[in-house]
Amino acid sequence: MQVRSQNKTVGFVPTMGALHEGHLSLLERSQEKCDISIVSIFVNPTQFNDPNDFLKYPKLLEQDIELLENKKCDVLFCPSVEEMYPNGLEERLNFPLGLLEEVLEGEKRKGHYQGVVTILDALFKAIQPDFVFMGQKDFQQVLVVKTFSKELFPNIQIISCPTERDSDGLAKSSRNLRLSAEARQTALRLSQALFYIKNKFDQQNPSKIIEEAKKMFLEHPNVQLEYLEMRDSNTLEALSYETWPKNNAVLLIAAFVDSIRLIDVLLLFEELD
User: Fold this and answer.
1) Where is 41: in which H helix or E strand?
2) Which residue has the higher pLDDT, 240 or 2?
3) Cα–Cα distance between 70 and 89 in angstroms, integer?
4) 110 SS3 class
């Protein structure tokens, strides 16, 4: 690989396309830190639990290419399903993830993270990056990738970058493109609930604050809260509400808004790679 022979550092941003400012901020971080920046676009079928969700996932390749050209991305990698799964979609990595595969996203989306690590295993082998840049919004996924890469790709550093939000607080997501104007307003409840908890957590028992925040989702017929929890930010283990430490707590939320599943996350402290 010519880049390797020249001792150039390679930064990698794996995406499923439908790029937004959040993805572009990851590319910018890579460009600041690395000599060469590579973005992949691959809508990975093995990480979708719902086939309809896979079919409806926005695919905007021409628009994505234009955005990356404007940002002077060095390389765009758009592999086919056949390239990434030469032996068929049934072949999975089956990497042991422990608790990360049993709680929150792991519990609600069975098999999802095995699909994630399977495709990243193929991408990491193909690209051989030094650094991988991922969005903090997918907090549990970042922990999964760090666990997997530490074991199988110890020379790759996984860098978690801050969640990009619109001016009204909504976390940027490719799935936001599927929201109607009304549903988008409703979706603001996710970030509002997280910031409500963060702003009040020093004032009373955290469990009471979280229960108050959950009430934001009881009034609206088009919102279905899946979970809203505070967990240990290093392990995602449950925290004791009586003795929980502020410096390793994270708030995680998932909800359906007009049948579109959205997630968000908020650290109760500031700590980035």
Assistant:
1) strand 36-41
2) 240
3) 34
4) coil
Residues tagged active-site: 23
CATH number of this structure's domain 2-161, picked from the four choices 1.10.10.10, 3.30.70.2740, 3.40.50.620, 3.40.50.300: 3.40.50.620
User: What would the 3-class secondary structure string for 164-229 be?
Assistant: CECCCCCECCHHHHHCCHHHHHHHHHHHHHHHHHHHHCCCCCHHHHHHHHHHHHCCCCCEEEEEEE
- Looking at residue 272, what is its pLDDT? 47
Domain boundaries defined on the chain: 2-161, 174-267
CATH class of the structural domain 174-267? alpha beta
Q: How far is CA 32 from CA 9, 72, 130, 165, in A?
A: 11, 12, 14, 21
Evaluated on CA atoms 136, 167, 177, 32, the torsion sign reads negative
pTM (two decimals): 0.94
* Length in residues, the chain: 273
CA nearest neighbour of 32 among 67, 72, 75: 72
Rg of the chain, C-alpha, whole Å: 19
C-beta separation of 161 from 169 below 8 A? no
pLDDT digits (tens, 9 = 90+) for 132-142: 999 999 999 99
Cα 137 to chain centroid distance, Å, stands at 5
Q: What is the distance of C-alpha 73 from the center of its chain? A: 21
**β pairing state of 260-267 and 249-257:** antiparallel
